[in-house]
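Ticket #4471: structure output looks truncated?

Reporter: J.K.
Steps to reproduce: submitted the chain below (353 residues) through the standard prediction queue, then opened the result file.
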Amino acid sequence: MKRGPTYCFALTLLFGTGSILAPHGAAFEVPGERDPSRTPSRLPEGNDGLAAEHPGDAGLEDHPAVVLVERFDGTLEQIAERWDNVSRQDIFSLSDDVPSGAASPQSLLMTHTGGDGNGGHLYRRLLPGYEKLFWRYYVKYDPDAGPLHHTPRIGGLQPLPRWPTGGAGSRPDGDRSFRVGVGPHYGPEGSWDFYVYWNEMRGSPPRGQTWGNNFLQDPEQSTQRGRWTCVEVMVQLNQPDQRDGELALWLDGKLVGHWGPGFPDGTWIWDKFTPGHPGPGIRWNDDVAGGREPIPGNQPFEGFRWRTSEDLQLNFVWMLLYITRAPEGHPSRVWFDHVVVAEDYIGPIRPAN
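Returned output as attached by the reporter:
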């Protein structure tokens, strides 16, 4: 089988306390001096996870902390039966290009052709719903792939349908939904970053629109097309009346970002939070002439209030390819493999041999 260079991504989301921007610039409390009790907990890295106990991920689905494992074994029809909703199965194929260390012989390849729709997806409910989840997947972007408009997501919906829902440009209701995407943004290669929607997300000019908020803003975290990457995300839900939620991201087992109540220090510039940015910042405020209100920079991050109701939980994963600007007839290929959702840190594949 063909094995390409491999990367692994991990992402963590937590719900929690702290101050944040209210819709369209309502009263906003700028965080002050760091509360010493608000410090990030130590998160595991590298091979200090569930995958270390299961070479090649073999048998990982039997671990009590594991919610979902998809290694794309079997035929396309068998794979589709394991998901609640499948879009454009005709652009799917099976490939012998797999991440290093994988025990299974094939991955899933999605091929978008410019002018023929916007891509495809696999969507699965995560029942009965969870307060904290780790989501790990491997992905490889072809160097010639067109610019990706949207990429895989995890989140919560209430009520929970058997198919994905969008809502681009709209701030979600805190008792209805939130979603976290991670994928290429910015620059020729596209650096890794988030694309996050939640009920206290920030707006941007020219009218305070709420598009997905970003949090990494690090051009050094290139997607490095043409090789496999291991991505892992963690999400933990907040207490509904608090902003004690958190978000974390690992790339190839390395923790590259962790956000929560009071950490890290950084600066909001419209709908983008940049860790370590010295400031000053700016936010959209409907009550200010022109909508532009300066705010202090280099402040502790407020934390996430992902939800306002306990009924809203982490309950779906969405493996998505969405491209809108590829030239007519241009093929854009993206490979996915070894998707795992669990209640504990997963980490990269431990080689089977």
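Triage note (M.O.): checked the attachment and the full token line is present. The chain has one domain: 2-26+39-342.
Status: closed, working as intended.
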